[in-house]
Design brief:
mainly beta
Amino acid sequence: QVQLVESGGGLVQAGGSLRLSCAASGRAVSMYNMAWFRQVPGKEREFVATIDWTGTSISYADSTKGRFTISRDGAKNTVYLQMNSLKPEDTAVYYCAATTRRGTLPDLFSSWGQGTQVTVSS
């Protein structure tokens, strides 16, 4: 397993931008597929975006496509989520996750960060 630490959350006005970071450490961390999820109280964890270990296979949830960009820096073992044109409905705790498997279901991911709060005001 790997250890994940998110940062970069905060309060932003609608239409604004934030960049989340996820620092990964552990054995063979560069071989993991990475993803971002988000969750609001009372709802299930929702897939946001994923990037494979090579950095070449990327997919997004329909709700974030065109506004969010996921990327990874292998040298720094860090995954980023650039969020633009933020909306109040993007408000959630955002989690970074890692897996050696393929897919976007939360159950496939074996390692999770502690989460970072993103709040978008209207």
